């Protein structure tokens, strides 16, 4: 009984352990669900970012295409710089597109890994579900056993219990083995994924390095082309700027002369119009005074006429009152004569009045014409003043535009001069470094020749003290050595001829700045090869010190003399080459000074 109770306690402990394991698995599953949700969220975020980058890439590509078309249509230096910037932006865009594609591939790999983990989690969930079902069945079986414990025999129960415990242990062991195998599989998958990532990372690094190398080579070529184009553009822009400045100066002079002429004409016309107006005003005033005088005279004549008519009427009345007919006849006769006289006077006055009225009408007409002319002149003066104001405004506007263009061209010229000065300073530094290297190699060459001379003297002394002959094999070896020396001398001649051709090409070129660097480097390489060959000859001479044959010694002496003569010839040719290089440097300096003078004169 005590053993069964102990086994029951052990079984309950195992059940509790299994429950705790199930809880832990549930917690792990919840944690994995959270990680899965976070991974899905990150995945969706990365997809959205990839889509946004793709859209942005397409928009940038369209903009780059438009900018490229605009740049291809234009020909100014600033637009060439913009073209280079567009090319750089295109390369950056291609890099970004490659990174986006890599990110998409990484997202797909992560999605596959997540799907595999989800499958593993589903398998584990099914396994846990089976285990929980088995535990429930076992607990139910234990309960039935405990209920039937009182009625059955103890041996059968203990055997059944032992079998159940054994099966449970086997199930636990198998479960543990499955879990260990799952862990191993997961570790292997993670390890393989890490290895794949490392391999992909290395491939990417190699690809990036190759792309960087290609881009650097392309940028160097583009910069060289851009420098040549910019120099040509700068020269053309300088010429255009000179032409524009000259045209602007001529236009300013013409405009000033035209404005002065126009102002003079305007002042003269204003004076003429003012004089005309003053004359017209004086004439109108004079005519108005004459009209007033004539009106006053006319009113006086009318008053006199009225008085005469009244006087004659009174005389007629007085005559009619008289009784004497003779007197009446005489008075009538007198009256008739007076009436005739008065009628004549009246006719004369009427004629004068009609003449005065005609003159007045003529004066009114002249006055209206003068007023109309005055109004027309005022309108014309106003129009001319408005035209003058418009011309002044246009002059101010054009003057501001010319000043802005002048400032813009001055800034461009300043930038170009600064770039040119920087390039000239860099080339001067390169020339100084090349000169220093040339002097260093010349010193090394002189040191090598001195060492060769010293070894030659030592060899002559050693040969004079030796009298032993050498075998035919040594003679053949020496002949081979002499033939090799002849070949080396021929190579020296070939290199010297090449050097001469290069120096001639350098002298024939007009753009000495671009070809100075490689020729100097070739000259230095040739000098280095010659120094190495001189050292090889010294070694061969040191090997030939052991020769004892007098004939061979004499032949070798003759050969050494020939070599010394050829060495002297080579030295003379090198001196000539150095003189040509110095003349080339002088030409460079002269060209540099001409460029500086031309830039400052512009």
Q: What labels would you give this structure?
A:
602 residues; mainly alpha; Helix Hairpins; 3 domains; 7 helices; 95% helix
Task: Briefly characterize the structure.
By secondary structure, the protein is mostly helical. The chain contains seven helices and no strands.
What is the residue-averaged pLDDT? 68
Top CATH class of the largest domain: Mainly Alpha
Assign the CATH topology of the largest domain. Answer: Helix Hairpins
Estimated structural class? mainly alpha
**Rg for CA atoms:** 62 Å
| Helical residues, percent | over 70%
Unreliable spans are 70-75, 469-475, 510-520
Give the domain tally. 3
| Structural shape | flat
Q: Based on the structure, what is the oligomeric state of the protein chains?
A: single chain
**From the coordinates shown, what is the CATH architecture of the largest domain?**
Orthogonal Bundle
Report the total helices.
7
State the total count of DSSP E strands: 0
What series of H and E elements makes up the topology?
A: HHHHHHH
The major pleated sheet works out as: none
Question: How does this model look, in words?
Answer:
With 602 residues, the protein is mainly α. The protein is 95% helix and 0% strand. Residues 70-75, 469-475 and 510-520 have low confidence and may be disordered. The radius of gyration is 62 Å and the shape is flat. It is built from 7 helices and no strands. α4 (325-464) runs parallel beside α6, α5 packs antiparallel against α6 (512-543) and α6 runs antiparallel to α7 (550-601). The chain folds into 3 domains: 2-152; 254-409, Orthogonal Bundle (Helix Hairpins), CATH 1.10.287; 466-601.
